[in-house]
Amino acid sequence: MRQTYSQVACLLLVTTLAVHAHSARSAANAHARPSGRAGYGVRVPASEVLGYWVTFEEKKLIALADAMPADKYQFVPTQGEFKGVRTFGQQVKHLSATNYILGAAILREKPPEDAGDETGPDPVRTKAEIMEYLKGSFAYLHRAVASIDDTNELEPGVSSAISPLQGKIPATRLGLTVEALMHTNDHYGQLVEYLRMNGVVPPTSR
C-alpha cells in the first residue's frame, strides 16, 4: 500500500466506477419508458456493480498467481533498482492481506489478526498456501461489497490505518471499495512484470 499506484490505471478505474454509479442512480430516478433496449430504466444495485469489478480483478489475479511456477514464488528482480522489493509470493500475500484489511473496514469490523501490517500470515509461504490465502481474501472482499447499498455506500466511517483516506476525506464504504480495487490492479501490473522476467506470458495476454 505504501508503493505508488499506477496513475493511469487508477484514473481509469475511478472513472469507470463513477460512470457506473451515476448510471445506477439515473436509472433509479428515471421513469420507465418504452425502449428497444433490454433493461432500460432498471436500477442496478451498487453492490452488483462493485461486485462485478471485484470478480473481474479476482479472476485476473488468481489466474496470474497460478501461472507462476511454484519454484519461482521466491523470485525477486535483481537487475535495476529493486533493492528491498517483495518477492512474487510476498506481493501476492500483501495484496491479499490488504483485501482483508480494507474489506474489514467496509464491514466495520476488526480485520483478521494474521493480516498483519499488510504482510499476511508468516506461516503461509508455499504457492498452494498463498493461492488459498488469495482466494480467501477475495471471498471476504465479496462479502464486504455485498453489504453495500444506497443507504450506506456514502456513510462516513473509520478508515483503516493503511488507507490514504486517513484524515483527507471520509472513509466511506464506496471509497474503501475503490481503494481495494485500485490496489489489486496496481499489484497486478507489478506481478505481470515478475512473470515476464521468468519467461511466463500472463494469462490475459495469451
Topology readout:
Elements: H1 7-29, H2 46-67, H3 88-107, H4 127-146, H5 173-197
Helix pairs in contact: 1-5, 2-4, 2-5, 3-4, 3-5
| Succession of helices and strands | HHHHH
Shape: globular
Q: Poorly predicted ranges (pLDDT <50, ≥5 residues)?
A: 1-37
Total helical segments: 5
The share of residues in helices is 40-55%
First and last CA, distance: 29 Å
The whole-number mean of residue pLDDT values reads 82
Work out the strand percent.
Answer: under 5%
Number of strands: 0
Alpha-beta classification: mainly alpha
Largest sheet: none
* Radius of gyration computed on alpha carbons: 18 Å
Question: How would you portray this structure in words?
Answer:
The structure is a single chain. The protein is an all-alpha fold and 206 residues long. The chain has five helices and no strands. The longest helix is centred in the C-terminal third of the chain and has 25 residues. The protein is globular and about 50 Å long. The N terminus is likely disordered.
Which descriptors apply to this entry?
about 210 residues; mainly alpha; about 55% helix; globular
